[in-house]
């Protein structure tokens, strides 16, 4: 029995020598300022669709600056904002505000 156990134990010990050590995980540390809204950030004021459009625009610019939205999604939202702004300027206030709300929901923001 000892003759069988000794080679088995030796092979297990040698197998342990061949195991690779876990490699350290490199972490990309982002500067804190990238993930935090600047202290001087203030949402635009205003009523009706013009205020809705301006606030949605400011939120998107802030989210892009912080890296919370990528450029492709930002560009898509900008097209939606432009359409909302056009409706607002044409006097279609409720339609423009509804377009902003729909854009927010579509992209996962609270309406």
Describe this structure in words.
- There is one protein chain.
- By secondary structure, the chain is an all-alpha fold.
- Helix content is about 60%, strand content about 0%.
- About 10% of the residues have low confidence.
Task: Give short descriptive properties of this protein.
mainly alpha; globular; 111 residues
Please write out the topology.
Elements (H helix, E strand, L loop, with lengths): L1 H17 L29 H19 L4 H19 L3 H14 L5
Helix pairs in contact: 2-3, 2-4, 3-4
Quick recap:
Helix content is 62%, strand content 0%.
Distance between the termini: 74 Å
What pattern of helices and strands is seen along the backbone? HHHH
Measured by DSSP, the beta-strand proportion falls in under 5%
Taken from the alpha-carbon principal axes, the silhouette is globular
Largest pleated sheet: none
Helix content: 55-70%
The structural class is: mainly alpha
H/I helix tally: 4
Average pLDDT score: 80
Q: How many DSSP-defined strands? A: 0
Rg over alpha carbons? 28 Å
Unreliable residue stretches = 21-33
